[in-house]
UniProtKB/TrEMBL annotation:
Source lineage: Bacteria, Bacillati, Actinomycetota, Actinomycetes, Bifidobacteriales
Protein name per Swiss-Prot or TrEMBL: Putative N-acetylmannosamine-6-phosphate 2-epimerase
EC number, UniProt record: 5.1.3.9
InterPro entries in UniProt: Aldolase_TIM, NanE, RibuloseP-bd_barrel
Alphabetical list of Gene3D superfamilies matching this protein: Aldolase class I
Catalysed reactions, as listed in the record: an N-acyl-D-glucosamine 6-phosphate = an N-acyl-D-mannosamine 6-phosphate
Gene designation per UniProt: nanE
Top-rank EC class of the record's enzyme: isomerase
Statement: the UniProt record of this protein carries the keyword NAD: no
CDD domains assigned: NanE
One family name in Pfam for this protein: NanE
Keyword terms, alphabetized: Carbohydrate metabolism, Isomerase
UniProt KW Nucleotide-binding keyword: no
Chain's role: Converts N-acetylmannosamine-6-phosphate (ManNAc-6-P) to N-acetylglucosamine-6-phosphate (GlcNAc-6-P).
GO biological process: one example: carbohydrate metabolic process
Length: 228
């Protein structure tokens, strides 16, 4: 849907994912909103965030598109797993709602296509978090607005790569040239981001390498014990 003004606003840019995991010191809506504001000051064209409180807090502080998700659970379909979760994300202020696009059973019994159709009837822009090419095809067949490599390496269908899953990204871009394809997942350096965009990605989502200080610190600490 390249005539969608929200999708067009993130074209060619960096979307920063601002999320903190349960029990972590930064897990607070105001903190995530401040993180989002800092990312936008640095040049982010969009923000991805998790949870209704975070979506609302961030939407009230930034003027870039917000991609909202609601994680419920820790296995199977837990990224915006039902139509209710997706509707709540939209009501909280998400400009784009990202949902799990795998073929795994959804808690409410609806198919992915049924969920997308209901959201489109309500004017919601939908992004598909895909873990494989089959997921991407399912999303495209359902009329999804944006497809992404978010779940590559996390669903058991593809090996988890050290960096972005460039193979899947290129496959999706080649197969669906008329649909915005985002790259998300394990983009850890500016060089990797550059390579992703050179592949033809519509935009890229970076989270851990920018907004998760615990992980970033651990990367540095891990090098302390390495021999020169």
């Amino acid at each position: 849907m390249r005539d969608n003004p929200v999708i067009n606003r993130i074209k060619g840019g960096l979307v920063v994912s601002c999320q903190a995991y349960p029990g972590e010191p930064l897990r607070h809506p105001e903190t995530m909103a401040q993180m989002a504001m800092a990312a936008v000051e640095g040049g982010a064209v969009g923000i991805r965030c998790q949870g209704l409180s975070d979506i609302s807090a961030i939407k009230g502080q930034v003027d870039v598109p917000v991609i909202g998700i609601w994680k419920d659970g820790s296995e199977g379909v837990y990224i915006t797993p039902t139509l209710r979760h997706a509707r709540c994300c939209a009501a909280a202020g998400a400009d784009i709602v990202a949902i799990d696009a795998t073929g795994r059973p959804r808690p409410d019994g609806r198919t992915y296509a049924e969920t997308v159709r209901a959201l489109h009837d309500e004017g919601v822009t939908v992004m598909a978090d895909c873990g494989s090419f089959d997921d991407a095809k399912r999303a495209v067949d359902a009329g999804t607005d944006i497809i992404s490599t978010t779940l590559a390496g996390y669903t058991g269908e593809r090996e988890k790569t050290d960096g972005p899953d460039f193979e899947l990204l290129k496959q999706m871009i080649a197969a669906f040239p008329d649909l915005p394809v985002l790259c998300e997942g394990r983009i850890h350096t500016p060089e990797q981001l550059h390579e992703v965009m050179q592949c033809g990605a519509w935009a890229a989502v970076v989270g851990t390498a920018i907004t998760h200080p615990t992980s970033i610190t651990s990367w540095f600490v891990a090098r302390l014990g390495e021999k020169q």
